[in-house]
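Service request form, structural biology core

Requester: graduate student, group of Dr. S.
Request type: structure prediction, single chain
Budget code: on file
Notes: please return the result as structure tokens.

Sequence provided:
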Amino acid sequence: MDKLKPIIAIISLQFGYAGMYIITMVSFKHGMNHWILATYRHVVATIVIAPFALILERKIRPKMTWPLFLRILALGFLEPLLDQNLYYIGMKATSATYSSAFVNALPAITFIMAVIFRIETVNLKKTRSLAKVIGTAITVGGAMVMTLYKGPAIELFKTAHSSLHGGSSGTSSETTDQNWVTGTLAVMGSITTWAGFFILQSFTLKKYPAELSLVMWICAMGTVLNTIASLIMVRDVSAWKVGMDSGTLAAVYSGVVCSGMAYYIQSIVIRERGPVFTTSFSPMCMIITAFLGVLVLAEKIHLGSIIGAIFIVFGLYSVVWGKAKDEVISVEEKIGMQELPITNTSTKVEGGGITSEVNEGVTNNTQV
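Core staff response, request fulfilled:
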């Protein structure tokens, strides 16, 4: 069960993320501003997480220092501000299905950064390391296919909304193609900052091993930074209006599930399994989101997205296989490093006979 807990937690998160993509896309179609949504999302997350952090970790919370505060500020800048707003921009310009499929490149980007910062090791003479490198290259290639080749639309199900999407003019098609490139670049920027967030989070947890308190600080920092950005980017005061609509639902759902709970679960899994493992189940989210996107939003899946996603999934699981082999080797090395006491014996000749004398209390520490 100890081995299954991180897997179950991360798989559960993929369902949570898939729901967030759909609900958020619906709110955008109803006019919700992404800067405002990101702000409200972290207001909700801070309110929900703060009581648990303040009560449950009051005895184990490390003292806040300036170096720690600057790290938390950087975490708030990378994920709550940059990653989420870039992702929202990309989602609005493309589709929920496409953007969630592109997120499959996240483990490869995380792996590259982990190698740069020496969290992961690579030895090309080892099969497991070669699998991780080749898998990363295939994943990046799949992302490039999705970026450069859109292809014809493939309609999996006939829905009532099909007529609304089918009668577009040539001008709107050109605009859509332009938005597709812009949206792809925005999603790529989102993935890069998200990977950087995972790497910095793994370093920060070593200095600040209180997961709930760290999540509270990140969400609070995200609230402040997104508020400042929203006041600069959004001049319409009415955009801040809150009502019983899809925008409020998106803010509450994403704040509780995808910021508060997700940050906390990711912190625990990162501490136990590392950032690469934490990001390795993202293809599940793509499949769930694609299914919901077709049914709920009447989205069309393009051929380029399917081909690119296939490459990404194959590359991803090559990386995961190499990572799994690393964990097996790591466990074996830890077992081998255990010191076993071996008693020394010495021999001496007494009256022409050989006797063995045990030197009690003297042992050699040898490694198996």
